[in-house]
Amino acid sequence: MTLTRTDHDTTTTDAQWWKSAVVYQIYPRSFADSNGDGIGDLPGIRSRLDHLQRLGIDVIWLSPIYRSPHADNGYDISDYQDIDPVFGTLADFDGLLADVHQRGMKLVMDLVVNHTSDEHPWFRESRSSSDNPKRDWYWWRPARDGFEPGDPGAEPTNWESFFSGPTWTLDPITGEYYLHLFDPKQPDLNWENPEVRHAVYAMMRWWLDRGVDGFRMDVINLISKDTTLPDGAPGASGLGNGFPHYANGPRIHEFMQEMHREVFAGRDGQYLTVGEMPGVTWQDAVLFTDPARHELDMVFQFEHVNLDHGPGGKFDPRPLRVSDLKASLGRWQRELGTAGWNSLYLGNHDQPRSVSRFGDDGAHWRESATALATVLHMHRGTPYVYQGEEIGMTNVPFATAEDLRDIESLNHYRKTVATGQDPERAMAAIRHIGRDNARTPVQWDDGPQAGFTTGTAWIGVNPNHTWLNAAGQYDDPESVFCHYQRLIELRRTLPVVAHGDFQMLLADHPAVYAYQRQREGTTLLVVANLASEQADVALDVEHYDLLLSNIEPYTPSTNGQLVLTPWEARIYITTSPR
Ligand code: ISL
Ligand code: CA
């Protein structure tokens, strides 16, 4: 069937343009290097915009490019209003933004304001003395009652940081502790202080005035803490789990509404806001994204990417059950159906490669990458493509800890060694779920360094770039890249993809994910076998036409039975009343 571009959809307003958009995430360090220093940069991104346009995406989200000591690859910012020299200059940025706009795309910045770098001037001032005017911009507390500063257990709370170890570090200048939910080089800002909030809002307005099209807000649901700072329940590591005391805290909705008022209200222009929210429930997500509440356009939730975490956390992985994945994705589709809006993602710079995690990156690499993409992109919500996912990039065979760069993985490895546990077990977990899997350079071609740099990449290139690379996929209609192109094109041309309602089918099937999308007399039926064995399912597709499939030739259905080969995915359509 031929598809024609449809006119403006009538169910959404201009302000909700992001409901039919597709976003592409760039992790700048690993995207493209222009000057041979082995680190991706802004001119590198500018030189690869053809790739993004060819893919058909609407919006680029740039992971942080601000000035930073790079303790956490830029998620530790020392100047919010400048570009780190490793990535380029503000002039490079303006040039990139102009190119992006000229090509009809938008650009969204990463906003990291739960914490700054400890090298940010705000923190330097704050730590300098107990009566500095910026003292209260961060969380300073004395040692626990009855303890001397520096004593074991003297930290003001027992919370364990996301990156191992306590969330408090003693600062010798004043003998008090400061809070950091992440690394000691990432002190948490005190959002209770209105000066902090207004400094952040002013900075955001400065970027909007410069022309950016919105923000992805890093761990934004952690900014409102329980100010009584209670201890957390004891966790596996011996430290306590403080999460309930700082996630979705008492003032979080108030802060989001204030930010909306102070930054976005009354401005012309089309913005996108997405809040990254570990631990967010669908009930909270509805509140955050209900347009009537003026908070955020959408959130990144974590339910589906935490399904394979075991009792000891992410480095204690357990096998993922397709039935759990189906139930989770289906729940979010259902619950954010009318009020609120979903963001859709399988991977990002914090997660392993989606084809390795949810698919089968061996025998069924191409089929599973395309099946997963089909399932995700035919959902209701705004899809995010993480760089390299569109060519099916896989996890990386890291041999030893020397191959790793990520602070989280390195800390976990060091802790394992220090406590006398099995280092090979830690490496196995890191290969499985570590963040560096997603951070190796984008594989542009089969040449040395995968076409990423003329020098030596800051983290080793995945050896499979010899056969897995963008150049080899552009002209191959069966490639992962071309499948992504077609999925994105469907969202552009068929309003039912962006706006249709969602109904789960075959809910109890252990391997096949199937659902219907419906809007104004058009129905899509999506069916995907998410397993490496053949599946036979009872599904009547007689009234449908096949719109897209990832395996050709496919076996037609007989008597209401569908036979699906491993990782086979099909999209059917009908416009007749059913
Ligand atoms: O990967 C994780 C650690 O297990 C996640 O919990 C991650 O820390 C969480 O998703 C927050 O991520 C964001 O903030 C971090 C930064 O390291 C991540 O890269 C960023 O996406 C601190 O800024
Ligand atoms: Ca560079």
UniProtKB/TrEMBL annotation:
Keyword match Hydrolase: yes
Organism whose genome encodes this protein: Promicromonospora iranensis
Annotated GO MF terms: oligo-1,6-glucosidase activity
UniProt keyword list: Glycosidase, Hydrolase
InterPro entries: GH (IPR017853), GH13_cat_dom (IPR006047), Glyco_hydro_b (IPR013780), Malt_amylase-like_C (IPR032091), O16G_dom_2 (IPR045857)
Domain of life of the native organism: Bacteria
PANTHER family, per the entry: ALPHA-AMYLASE FAMILY MEMBER, NEUTRAL AND BASIC AMINO ACID TRANSPORT PROTEIN RBAT
EC number: 3.2.1.10
NCBIfam families: PRK10933.1
Family per record: Belongs to the glycosyl hydrolase 13 family.
Residues covered by the Glycosyl hydrolase family 13 catalytic domain: 25-439
Family annotation (Pfam families): Alpha-amylase, Malt_amylase_C
Protein name: Oligo-1,6-glucosidase
Top-level EC class: hydrolase
